[in-house]
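Thread: Newbie trying to understand structure tokens

Hi all, I'm a second-year student working on a class project, and my supervisor (Dr. K.) asked me to get a predicted structure for one chain before our next meeting. I've only ever worked with sequences, so writing a 3D structure as a token string is new to me. If someone could post the tokens and maybe explain what I'm looking at, I'd be very grateful. Here's the chain:
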Amino acid sequence: MRLLKYILVFLIMILISCASTEEKLSPMQKRQITTETFESDYDNVYKATLTVLQDQGYIIQNTDMKSGLIVGLVEREASGGSQFMQALFLGHVEDKGSKLQASCIVNEISEGTVELRINIQEAKYGQTSAFSSDVTQDVKRIYDEEIYNRLFNEIRLEIKRREAKERN
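---
Reply by user tm_fold:
Sure, no problem. This is what the structure looks like when written as tokens:
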């Protein structure tokens, strides 16, 4: 009985330490992370954004060049071994993977200055029981500054590549 108490306390401590400590960001901080300004023309930024998203594996679902909208989706499956172990021990696959959706708005600020805002959302999916179909289990917005910086840098490089190609 005493051993059971120690195990229970140990498990509770592990659960508490694993709890998410996601810091709260203000709307302005979120906008700063997800928005970048480029010194280029609207068409170039729009097409560079499309190219980079496709290079990243996103399937473009919706575009509207007039409004500046681009929506893309990429699906990331959990490893086959992980799914096998879940099926073996749980009788169903709780974590089949996640879907990342990027929605972009390209907005011309002035001639030669364009603002790009990207919002990325991750939705995890899987089964809740052996008899259920796939369901979305957890949806969250991504605000990892490093992810956005890498994406904006790739778009910046694509813009420069396109501008160099136009000069030749």
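A couple of things are worth pointing out once you decode it. The first strand starts at residue 35 and ends at 38. The longest helix spans residues 145-167. Feel free to ask follow-ups in this thread.
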